[in-house]
Amino acid sequence: MILRYLLLFVFLYSLDVIATSQTIQIYSWKDTSGQVHYSQFPPESKVNNFDVTIEEMPLPILKTEKDEKLKNWSVEIDKYISEKKNLRKNQKQQVKMKKRYKENCEIAQKNLILYNSHRRVRIRSDDMQGSYAMSEEQRLEKIKLAEESIKSFC
């Protein structure tokens, strides 16, 4: 759907570029009396040798109501496309967040099962010198933390 609007916008924009780049040929020459003439057509007199110059002149483009409507329409299309992109971005973020919540929920459930199943839980120490047994107070804190995590993530 977005691709259709994008292609339509590109097409309309290219028409606008073509319309603004149109030029017309203007012929100018001096007649025998020295008067300068301008015309879209070369002089008809084949007897006189006029010094005819051809100039490329851009056509004047008048802004109309239709142009304003097209401009407003293109602004609306741009707005629509940016809203769709933002919506898509938000949906992707929500999917990632749901996945993280699910992973955190599973971890919290495993931790709760672990801390409830054993009275003496051994934990590796941070300085890698071995492990130590967790005290009962620490174990109860970890159980409470796991229950809170389950409430927030599951």
Report on the structure:
The protein has 154 residues and is α+β, with helices and mostly antiparallel strands. It has one domain (2-22, 59-153). 58% of the residues lie in helices and 16% in strands. The strands form two sheets. A three-stranded antiparallel sheet has the order 2-1-3, with no helix packed on it. A hairpin with a 5-residue loop joins strand 1 (23-30) and strand 2 (36-39). It is rod-shaped, with a radius of gyration of 39 Å. The model has no long low-confidence stretch (mean pLDDT 78).
Question: What is the secondary structure topology, with strand pairs?
Answer:
Elements: H1 2-20, E1 23-30, E2 36-39, E3 53-58, H2 65-117, E4 122-124, E5 131-133, H3 136-153
Antiparallel strand pairs: 1-2, 1-3, 4-5
Helix pairs in contact: 1-2, 2-3
